[in-house]
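User: what does the whole thing look like in 3D?
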Amino acid sequence: MKIVYSWLCEYFESKPDIDFLVTTLKKLGFGVESIQKIGPDCRGVVTAKVLEVKKHPNADRLKVCRVSTGSEEYEVVCGASNVKEGIIVPFATVGAKLKDSILKKAKIRGIESCGMICSASEIGIEDNSDGIMILDENLQLGVDINDIFSRDYIFDIEITPNLSYALSHWGIARELSIFGGLKLKNIPVENNISITKYLDFSIEIKTADCYRYAGIIVKNIKNKNTPFFIFDRLKKIGVNPKGNFLIDLSNYVMFELGQPTHFFDLSKIDSIIVRQALDGEKFIGLDGNIYKLSEDIMVIADNKKVLAVAGIIGGIESAIDNSTSDILIEVANFNPVSIRSSAKKINIKTDSSYRFERTVDYNLIDLAIKRIIFLIKQTNPQAEICFFKDIKNVIPKDFNLEIDIRKIEDIIGIKVDTKMIFDLLKSMDNSFDGKFFKVPSYRHDIKSIWDISEEYLRYIGYDSIETKSFMQTFKSKDDVFWEIKDEFSRRLSVFGFNECYTYDLVSLKDIKEIGFNVNECIKILNPISSDFEYLRPSGLPSMLKVLRYNINRDIKSVKIYEFANTFIKNDNKIEEKRKLFILMWGFNNEWEWWKEKKVLIDFFDLKTVIDFLFNYEVEWLDKGFNFGINGGVIVLNDKEIGWGGEVKKSILKNFDIKVDNVFYVEIDIEQLRDSFESDFYSLLKKPKKPSQYQSGIRDLSIIIDKKYKFSEIRKAILDVEDIEEIRLIDVYEDSKLGKDKRSFTFRFIFSSYNKTFTDEELNKKIEKIFLILKEKFYASLR
Amino acid sequence: MTKEEWLSKLFQIEHYFDTIKNSYPKSDIRDIFLGKKGELTLLLKKISEIPVEHRKEVGLKGNELKKMIEEFVTEDYENVSEVLNEIDITLPSKKINFSFRHPITITLSKIIESFKKLGFSLEWGPLVEEDFYNFKALNFPDHHPARDMQDTFYIDGLFDSEGKNLILRTHTSPVQIRTMLKYKPPLRVISPGRVFRSEAVDATHSFVFNQIEGFYVDSKVNMCDLKWALENFIKDLFGNSAKIKFMPSYFPFVEPGAQVEVSCVFCSGRNINCKVCKGVGWLEMLGAGIIHPNVLKNCGYDPYQWSGFAFGAGIERFTMLLFGIDDLRTLYENDLRILRQVV
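Assistant: Here's the predicted 3D structure for the full assembly of 1125 residues, as structure tokens:
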């Protein structure tokens, strides 16, 4: 909300210092977002008359002017096209200060200029301006510009919903007087609202959502020029004043006191009925829009039509126009929830609805009426009050709170100064006796001792909160997900992976392009754009986009991972899973190095990474995966924990990725929980003692049918006694080996805690292994 | 034996040699290939089975391999002069990427470590939430204007038990409710994670970002405990000279509520032209306060028996300060040229 400094100051007995105001507002929790200085920013600039304008002898564009400040005459050079003889202008003499610079004597194209005729921007009145500023012709000469245009400040203040009672100049002033010690002045009002010429009129409330409704009829308003101070103030806070007093006055009172009001043209209405709208009822707003209403929207109507949506927007059919002289002034109070839901429903937000939905003080109506009548009478002494009715439909109860100092101390942690708290509460409730606090009607936010604690802290200053604690020491428990993340990150770093953070929302196109079933995906009702319309069912689109981004920036090796969630719909239930996405592409040894050749990443590099993450305890089931053929499902302890492999070329093409050999894995972290909580990782932390005997090494080359997968062959011989490790050191395929055959060369490491094996023993073991292979897989020696 | 069979066998032997030559002592290699029953020795003997016209060709190839293996097995230290060992030690080493964690994770780790020291444990919550946990139980009643402070994304076609659309959580605070409903006090919990606000992306806003939530519930918890805990954390993150300041603020789920400001980590309030704090000297970093009695009641805790403090902060803001990043979007672009500089 915008607050004008000079306007605010009007409510105080003495003008507070600007810095004091800013500091106090911040101290009270009003965020001061900006302070705009307006008015002239100059010194030594006075009014002057242009006596003569001549062409500059050496420049077509320039003019030589003779100006008078009343006491002296000067010759100056001026470049503005709007300079004319006889006009009054702001004139800076040599030595004047204009914003941040000092004006010096200057020679312009051979002619000495003894001063400067200024534009509005040069003296700081406007941000941008064209030509020199032309002042009122009736002004005296030699008057300081600062005496003509007053300096002012406009604060932009953030007012959180709990402080809505301060959504006005007067509301802020009241707050500053209670919490900042500034003394308030009375606002000029008309206390005597007497009816001078009675008119029969009907006001009826037919809905419980209208708490209070006051209607005053004022006739014979003839002077409809908005007084300058109202016009100027509305302009400063960014409300476009219309110049029509009746329209501007309604706005002015709202920004002054915080009470929204509405003025109807009396000639256009026959009565006032506050009721719920009928389903399908139509209404044309002041904004020219046609609104279709429904039963849950509260309206102000007469016998024939809807006049306004209550508390939100007035209607064109009953609006004030230039010929209006008789009006009905509505000053009302409505149920905030009703206003908020109605405003949402017809999708409109006004300064009025903004205040009503944040709760307006029930008793503010009294002050607002007196103030409005006062302001009308100021310019229209002839105006007549013909009707005044104030219906209190729902009366709020007084709210008393017992002040328990001990509880406040428990909440804030410091000792309460009883005098301070008494002073504070007394200033809000004059009847406060030290025990029971009657919450003033405008402080609808105060409901408990916690709220009083905050008020006390605001009063003494939050700086009084000390940095001290009696918190007992406590051991935090380890978190399995965080440990998994930490452990995996560390392990992935071995291969040079980088962690990414990508958006959880993707487009429909992304989902279609990886071939995912859109019906299983979760759509956002109100996306910010179609690029981010769905929760991602897989990390693949996001990872591919990161790949593309980096390929386009000439990166030759992209190894990335992200810990994030995937979302799918299953039987109208959300399945949200924590996942690890891994993508790799490019060269294994990413930067050229003189000692080695660059090697392209292939499937087995991916497999190495995954095996390494899981201590070589996972298995791959060779059954392909959704996004490619060369790949499969990853199994740990008989549980499917993930899938992945080489990404299909068609998908890469969809993402405009012009390379292939892109490998992707998605791991379901949730599934790992058991493994991590069991001894899977604790084994890692307790190393096995190596045997003190030398291990024996034997190689074995066999030829075997291709239909046998390596994993089954390995499994068949894994349990042979004393095998510490089986390494596959060569895979060789050649038509010479026979049709559909291949050759494996194994290296076996045998070891025992009891002895060193003799050659003979080792040979026997190898024979045994070969025998198994021969029997099970018809293997032959190579 | 045909010439082709012979050459194929020779090729296999060469392949085998290449595979194992460095894994056995050289004497064993000599035995395997060149010994009396060595693979190559036996093959060379079979030259006699090959038609005469091809013998010269295969012989040449066989001897080539034999010479290569012989050279390999006889080469040893004594024969190598010191001069040959001289290398240009200024040749470059291998470049290795070791910048694995994202700046956001690094920041988060520091924050978590700091609170772990004070006994806080991690808890997690879902990103797709129900109105109850995200708003209602946190003292945002239906139609409360405070709901406007957070622009919410709604899920299409999926509803909670009250028939309200599911939403993407707008803050990490629902974890407070979930945790309090699940456990009994005392509780010390932190909960990091992603949150969503329907806001356009710019240098300081994003519709996805990370937050961390923290809360402590015990028999007597007050504003001073809160300030103490937060100052501990801020010092862990920014060093001993960092100071914090509380200002009044409003969040429906705390009362009294505070905005926590941290002395500018760049200028410590000494530079009126500081770009980071804009000369103010303080940076708004966290929201905090005493858990609102309504929140405690909603979780079945008696607010006169239990009390607690809670705080929340955006992680990215800390990340940007710690890493000197001035555009939030940088963190979600994943430009490896940037990420690789972060260790």
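In plain terms: Chain B touches chain A through 96 residues (CB under 8 Å). The first strand of chain B starts at residue 121 and ends at 122.
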